[in-house]
Amino acid sequence: MALQEKYKVLLDTARSLGTKDLNFAEQDGVLQIRGTAPSADVKNKLWEVYGNIDPNFASGDVVMDVDVTTEVPGSQVKVITDSSNLNIRKGPGTDQPIVGKAAKDEIITLISKANDQWWLVRTKDNEEGYCYAQYLQTV
Amino acid sequence: MKLKRVFPMLMMAGTLVAAMPSCKSKVSDADLKAKVETVITSHQGITTSVKDGVVTLEGFASSEAEKAQIETDVKAADKSIKSVVNNIIVQVTAPAAISVNTVDESLAKGIVDATKDFPTVQATVKDGIITVTGTIEKAKLVTLKQALDNLHPKKVDLSAVVTK
Question: For A74-85, how does the pLDDT look when each residue is reduced to its tens digit (9 = 90+)?
Answer without folding.
Answer: 999 999 998 889
